[in-house]
Design goal:
about 325 residues; 15 strands; alpha/beta; Rossmann fold; Alpha-Beta Plaits
């Protein structure tokens, strides 16, 4: 990263008794990053988020926010972090303005800047006209917006969102995703989620944690390369033997699926589809279907969380 990182974790470990909930995690978050932080239940996501926000101390390792040691100087470090937990602690009996003023004061916003900070947070979260409404009377989607507003009301450099779209309807999900993209233009954002398409929609980096360890770290561009089609499904009425298919330029291997159906494996960006179609026509194989097979983020997630050992790319520790 060219700029100094907003968040820096170095070999962070957190033990609970004999269990390592976080096991040697290292990564950085830079300005403008929207980092998708993924992992199955119990993988260590929430524990890592609590460590970054200063709500839980690491057993060992180092956590810095804007170069400030979270353990050594937690008050200064926490001032640069905004946090939306999975279940936001909203005060249902307060109005939106009352709650945001309260949160702003808790985060050290000066009295002379209070109203401007609250107004800016409401405007950015699309709740500018709801200051006088009781939080308990708002819809689930608008309550989530209030939760995000409290996370940014003190204008932190780092915003951490834990499952921000859970329980929302499709329109609300789209609106919150757009808000997250907008936040990424002015903050470093860590998005912890189980919803894999959400990562592809709003993030520029992806990390997967499993059993407390980072097992995958990649930019979204690199992820796109990994998810590019590297196989073709071909159905033939009068199929040849596998050796004839393997002889086609660009084919790396052939897998027989069922009578007349094959999976043709090839290198990334080197599809033999055109050559295969031409050969099928010339030899009267009776081409019925020729379809690229693109691996899904879901399948990749399953693969990297089930196999042994970390697979970290250029964005990892």
């Amino acid at each position: 990263m060219d700029e100094a990182p907003l968040v820096h974790l170095e070999d962070v470990v957190r033990r609970f008794g004999g269990i390592r909930a976080v096991d040697g995690v290292s990564f950085q978050l830079g300005p403008g990053d929207v980092l998708g932080f993924l992992g199955p239940n119990g993988a260590g996501k929430t524990t890592t988020m609590k460590i970054i926000t200063g709500n839980l101390a690491p057993t060992s390792g180092r956590v810095e926010v804007r170069g400030i040691d979270m353990v050594g100087d937690p008050v200064r470090a926490k001032g640069s972090v905004g946090y939306l937990p999975e279940h936001p602690p909203l005060h249902q009996e307060l109005t939106v303005d009352e709650f945001l003023r309260y949160c702003a004061r808790l985060n050290g916003v000066r009295r002379r800047e209070l109203e401007e900070s609250v107004a800016t947070a409401k405007r950015r979260c699309g709740i500018a006209g709801m200051g006088g409404r009781l939080i308990g009377n708002l819809s689930r989607g608008y309550q989530q917006r209030v939760g995000i507003a409290q996370a940014i009301v003190h204008r932190p450099e780092v915003v951490i969102l834990d499952e921000p779209t859970i329980g929302l309807d499709p329109i609300q999900v789209r609106e919150i995703r757009e808000l997250i993209r907008e936040l990424g233009s002015e903050h470093g954002v860590i998005l912890s989620t189980h919803i894999l398409p959400e990562v592809q929609a709003v993030c520029n980096r992806v990390q997967i944690i499993h059993e407390g360890r980072l097992v995958f770290a990649e930019s979204l561009e690199g992820l796109g390369d990994r998810l590019a089609a590297t196989s073709l499904r071909v159905d033939l009425e009068r199929p040849p033997d596998a050796a004839s298919l393997e002889a086609i330029e660009g084919v790396s291997s052939v897998e027989m699926l069922e009578a007349g159906s094959f999976r043709i494996h090839h290198g990334s960006g080197e599809s033999p589809a055109e050559a295969l179609a031409r050969r099928a026509l010339d030899n009267g194989w009776g081409l019925r279907a020729l379809v690229p097979e693109e691996p899904s983020l879901e399948q990749m997630f399953i693969d990297v969380t089930l196999k042994e050992g970390p697979e970290t790319g250029e964005e990892a520790a």
